Amino acid sequence: MTDWRHIRTERLWLDEPVQDDLGDLHRIHADPASWAHFPQGRHLDLARTQQSLDASEVDWAHGLGYWCVRDSAAGPVIGMAGCAVVAGQPWWNLYYRFESSVRGRGYAAEAAGAALEAAHDVVPDRPVLAYLLDINVASRRTAEKSGLTLVWSGPDAGNDDPDAIRLVYLDREPDAAIRAAMDERFTPGPTV
After folding, report:
1. Is residue 116 part of a domain?
2. Contact 91, 126 (CB under 8 A)
3. Residue 87: predicted pLDDT
4. How far apart are the C-alpha atoms of 100 and 62, rounded to whole Å?
5. Which residues are within 8 A (CB) of 124 and not within 5 positions of it... i.e. 6 or more apart?
6. How far is Cα 83 from Cα 4, in angstroms, rounded to an integer?
7. Is 130 within 8 Å of 143 (Cβ atoms)?
8. What are the N-acetyltransferase domain coordinates in residue numbering (predicted)?
9. Residue 42's domain is classified under what CATH number?
């Protein structure tokens, strides 16, 4: 198995986050433009970003997590991307979020390709999943360019927007266990 903590793609430096990255990560995650399609996800304070950074340490202790993304060796963090296991789910979660000034350059797809390669190396039997809102066309394109296929869509449980539709993409056909886990995770429960 490869050590995926620090890798290079054609244009990107992907590195395991460290405490010194906190300010850049917070700038990206606190920017309303980064959350245009899901405003309730925005980090409103530094403590929320610190929680994400702390969780990243746990992810990387298991062999893979989300990278800080740079487009030059000594440049600032311009995004966060990679695969990690979230909340004990039976899949890798593919994640990508970039500052608005670098969107449209294909960086998300480039980082996602590296993330899929890493996930398939670390635990190849664990599927890679991306979930996003249907109105986020750029995120859909990234998932599709990465070779993921739409396997589920429906109302987005817990979203402040009652009309929000969640899309779930997967890197393979889901077996019965993955399908059941997706239904449990993404199907809204009964309303009271």
Report:
1. yes
2. yes
3. 81
4. 31
5. none
6. 11
7. yes
8. 11-148
9. 3.40.630.30
pLDDT attached to residue 162: 86
Q: Is 142 exposed, middle or buried (0-12, 13-18, 19+ CB in 10 A)?
A: buried
Exposed, middle or buried by CB within 10 Å (0-12, 13-18, 19+), for 72?
Answer: exposed
Q: What is the 3-state secondary structure (H, E, C) of the chain?
A: CCCCCEEECCCCEEECCCHHHHHHHHHHHHCHHHHCCCHHHCCCCHHHHHHHHHHHHHHHHCCCCEEEEECCCCCCCCEEEEEECCCCCCCEEEEEEECHHHCCCCHHHHHHHHHHHHHHHHCCCCCEEEEEECCCHHHHHHHHHCCCEEEEEEECCCCCCCCCEEEEEECCCCCHHHHHHHHHHHCCCCCC
What string of pLDDT tens digits covers the 192 residues of the chain?
Answer: 689 999 999 999 999 999 999 999 999 888 777 766 666 666 788 898 899 888 888 899 889 999 999 999 999 999 999 999 988 899 999 999 999 999 899 999 999 999 999 999 999 999 999 999 999 999 999 999 999 999 999 998 878 888 889 999 999 999 999 999 998 888 876 543
In a domain, 126, yes or no: yes
Structure tokens at 147: 């070779």
Q: Is 191 inside any structural domain?
A: no
d(CA 164, CA 10): 35
